[in-house]
Amino acid sequence: MKVSFQIKLFISLVAFFSVLFTLLGGYYYVDVGRQLYQEMSARAKIQAEEIALIPTLRNEVEQKDIKSIHDFMQKIAAHSDASFIVIGDNKGQHLFHSVFADRVGTTLVGGDNEEVLLGKSTTTIRKGGLGISLRSKAPIFNDAGQVVGIVSVGYLTSYLDTITVNKVVNILIAAVLLLIALFIFSWFFTRSIKKQIFSLEPREIGLLVRQQKAMMESIYEGVIAIDDDLRIEVINQAARKLLGLSQPARELRGQLISQVIDPVPFFAQQTMLAKDTHDEICRFNDLTVIASRVRIMLENSLQGWVITFRDRNEIDTLSAQLSQVKRYVDNLRIMRHEQLNRMTTLSGLLHMGRYEEAIGYIQAQSEHAQELLDFISSRFSSPTLCGLLLGKTARAREKGVELNFDPACRMETVFQPLHEAELISIIGNLLDNAIEATQRSSLPHAPVEVLIKLNEQELIIEVADQGVGITPEIRERIFERGITTKTRGDHGIGLYLIESYVTQAGGSIEVADNIPRGAIFSLFIPATGAARRSVQELEDTDYAT
């Protein structure tokens, strides 16, 4: 049976303080006993020396007037807290005993009178007639300075032990009360601790910490957790990479967020307290990001915020790739729509009995479609590329634009420097741009000329249109992200992707004006370049390292 953390902590606290109280009690008992013996020794010595200085007693002892000594000392003994007071002569015989009057005339016991008879005061622990006692003895001098007697004031050790025990008992009672209070405090303290750690065991907390660390490092997005003072608590590897931070996470922990990211409205105190936000476009240092901010609440108390962000360029790239997929779907839809129109026309001719016209229509459509299909399938080995070109041809025709393929088109093998998805993206974006530019020009629309040729040295892709062309203001920046001549749809992504793929494959792009109008895009990609990887592979590798 496993014992919970609360019970373990409670037992540990109680056991620790119990042992501590026991040790302190033992030390206190010894110390109190030692101090009591010192105090009582001093008290006995003072009493003995003061009694020895009384003139009346000195004369009575010198004369050995036992009755007078008895009467006088009875008064003194009644006001003293000593266990006994004894008066002896210079021969060691009892002259007075405060407890046993019949001891008068007998010899003092204990064997500690020699030094006193020589004129010295002594303090000893000896066994006397009443038992073991702490006693102090002082000599009694006459006017001539001779020792004529002895004063002995003593406290029985049993009496001293009783005083010590009484003091210790009082301390023990206080200790027991304190221990009970400790039990109550320990129980509520452990309950509070358990509540704060959500009833988790230390092993579970350790596991959660390790899991959190692994999860933070596995997240592709940048993640930063800050406290309510805007100081960094947690920052993952992706965040440090996106922000260009070289310091390890432990050095960044505790720093103000403004020391890591240049101050922006996103981190303004009032803005953060007002509401959470999602997918907000910000600029962190020199990077444009899409960021989200969520508050951390604990029992209706603000503990901080979690900020997640990702490079906006990556989002835009993904958006462009998804748009390309959408174009594929649109192409298929257009081809299906054209096919339905042809089938409807053919059905109408058959219903009207125009069989010769129906046969002629079928032959005309078949010859045109078959001619295009035969040309594309015979010149290009990639089924995906063939599907793209057929779809783009149908889409262009629907928009009133014709695609003319150069007879020199040929690509009978796989082009290794480019992945098929990248090649499709390049050709698809070039054709889309040319079709839209032609569609925006004045009627009649001139056809778009297309050349795709792979030889032993390089892959040549050339698309020429007689559309609206490229203005001189943006010609030098046409491949930058966000630069575009379009009036609708995705802006400034297609040519950016084209330039990225071509450059990584070691190729080049030439842009020229067409005659009498429009533009010509010519791409030259070497067929025997160095081995390369796609953008996604490079990003994945960088992130993994």
TrEMBL record:
InterPro entries, alphabetized: 2C_sensor_his_kinase, HATPase_C_sf, HATPase_dom, His_kinase_dom, PAS, PAS-like_dom_sf, sCache_3, Sensor-like_sf
Keywords of the record: ATP-binding, Cell membrane, Kinase, Membrane, Nucleotide-binding, Phosphoprotein, Transferase, Transmembrane, Transmembrane helix, Two-component regulatory system
Catalytic activity: ATP + protein L-histidine = ADP + protein N-phospho-L-histidine
One of the record's GO cellular component terms: plasma membrane
Segments crossing the lipid bilayer: 7-30, 168-189
Main enzyme class: transferase
Boundaries of every Histidine kinase domain copy: 396-529
Record EC number: 2.7.13.3
Keyword match Glycoprotein: no
Major localisation: membrane
Membrane topology label: Multi-pass membrane protein
Domain of life: Bacteria
SUPFAM superfamilies for this protein: ATPase domain of HSP90 chaperone/DNA topoisomerase II/histidine kinase, PYP-like sensor domain (PAS domain), Sensory domain-like, Sporulation response regulatory protein Spo0B
Recorded GO MF terms: ATP binding; phosphorelay sensor kinase activity
Localization terms from the record: Cell membrane
Gene3D superfamilies (alphabetical): 1.10.287.130, Histidine kinase-like ATPase, C-terminal domain, PAS domain
CDD domains according to UniProt: HATPase_DpiB-CitA-like, PAS
Name assigned to this protein: histidine kinase
Organism: Enterobacter soli
Source taxonomy: Bacteria, Pseudomonadati, Pseudomonadota, Gammaproteobacteria, Enterobacterales
